[in-house]
């Protein structure tokens, strides 16, 4: 049994790194560990507590007084709960944890969730650095993180505590249905999807596009969609705590991202059995088994995306075929595997004597 403390800015929904940390913490409890999450709190605190994860309040605002209080609070918690390993999930958390872990001689493990941010280099402060895909690992090596520190643990969501109790009833969507789930901001490439759908809709006027999610560019994207000839076939659903029924009801799931280290939503879309199209960028090809579990298109290329959508829409049997292909090696995307591989990373960051003592 290991005593693990995760530190992240908050536990609010609609942030992929938060979902990943919450999923991991709950599964680690299932695997017999004592787990804590230190953050300023959020929507997932009730779920964490229900699954045996103890939540600790640490404000991590980027102001000197707040950061100093966070340092002292973290130090106190590490001592009080006799923590064996600290796992930081964001830059501020890593910077706070680094000096405290050095002082207490506790290994610090960091996970690089948002490699596209310049500040991701600071995640190299960890004793071990987890990359959420092979591409992220290669990027961190180029940034100067030694290979000996780096370990790749691919994201996965199947079997998470978040998924327990979710609705398994598919949403009734107008078929053929094309679905996007994610944040409404430029990195996700939604304008490319709008342009591709406009092209496809001329040939397949019964096709429908559903946008599930929210974000700072929602009004801009709604205005852009409203100006299209296909506007009446585009539905903005908004944010939802459970997008899975939309995935169950969709024919085609599209993720046209420009940058996406290892999006959890692809694991969920594949679990739901969607025919998947994704950009050939960052960790997306790896999550789609390099094209065997989903179709890949170049990023920033609406014409290529339109062609791929047309390829599926012109023959319903192809959609059925790619639904089946979405299940290829789906067992690799379980949270059980993520937690097991993460535990191995923790052990690699500790002296062998410590690992043996914990195992006894």
Structural account:
This protein is α/β, with parallel strands linked by helices and 360 residues long. The chain folds into 2 domains: 3-156 and 334-359, Rossmann fold; 167-333, Rossmann fold, CATH 3.40.50. It contains 14 helices and 13 strands. The protein has helices at 16-30, 45-50, 64-80, 91-104, 134-142, 190-203, 218-226, 244-249, 264-271, 284-287, 302-313, 316-325, 335-348, 352-359, and strands at residues 3-7, 34-39, 54-57, 85-88, 108-112, 128-131, 150-152, 177-181, 208-212, 234-238, 252-255, 275-279, 295-297. A 7-stranded parallel β-sheet has the order 3-2-1-4-5-6-7, with helices on both faces. It has a 6-stranded parallel β-sheet with strand order 10-9-8-11-12-13, with helices on both faces. Strand 12 (275-279), helix 10 and strand 13 form a beta-alpha-beta unit.
């Amino acid at each position: 049994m290991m005593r693990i403390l995760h530190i992240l800015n908050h536990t609010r929904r609609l942030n992929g790194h938060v979902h990943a940390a919450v999923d991991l913490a709950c599964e680690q409890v299932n695997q017999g560990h004592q787990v804590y999450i230190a953050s300023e709190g959020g929507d997932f605190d009730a779920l964490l507590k229900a699954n045996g994860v103890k939540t600790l309040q640490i404000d991590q605002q980027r102001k000197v007084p707040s950061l100093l209080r966070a340092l002292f609070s973290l130090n106190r918690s590490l001592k009080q709960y006799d923590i064996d390993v600290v796992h930081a999930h964001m830059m501020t958390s890593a910077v706070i944890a680094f000096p405290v872990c050095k002082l207490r001689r506790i290994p610090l493990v960091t996970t690089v969730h948002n490699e596209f941010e310049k500040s991701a280099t600071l995640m190299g402060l960890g004793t071990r650095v987890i990359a959420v895909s092979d591409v992220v690992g290669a990027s961190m090596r180029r940034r100067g993180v030694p290979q000996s520190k780096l370990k790749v643990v691919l994201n996965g969501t199947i079997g998470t505590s978040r998924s327990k109790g979710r609705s398994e009833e598919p949403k009734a969507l107008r078929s053929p249905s094309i679905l996007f789930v994610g944040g409404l901001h430029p990195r996700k490439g939604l304008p490319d999807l709008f342009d591709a759908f406009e092209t496809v809709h001329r040939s397949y006027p019964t096709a429908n596009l559903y946008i599930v999610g929210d974000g700072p560019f929602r009004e801009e994207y709604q205005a852009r969609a409203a100006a299209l000839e296909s506007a009446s076939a585009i539905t903005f659903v908004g944010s939802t705590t459970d997008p899975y029924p939309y995935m169950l009801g969709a024919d085609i799931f599209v993720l046209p991202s420009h940058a996406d280290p290892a999006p959890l939503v692809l694991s969920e879309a594949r679990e739901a059995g969607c025919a998947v199209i994704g950009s050939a960028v960052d960790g997306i090809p790896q999550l789609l088994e390099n094209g065997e579990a989903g179709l890949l298109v170049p990023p920033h290329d609406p014409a290529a995306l339109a062609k791929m959508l047309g390829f599926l829409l012109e023959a319903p049997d192809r959609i059925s075929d790619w639904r089946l292909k979405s299940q290829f090696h789906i067992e690799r995307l379980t949270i059980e595997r993520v937690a097991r591989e993460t535990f191995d990373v923790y052990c690699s960051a500790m002296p062998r004597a410590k690992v043996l003592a914990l195992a006894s």
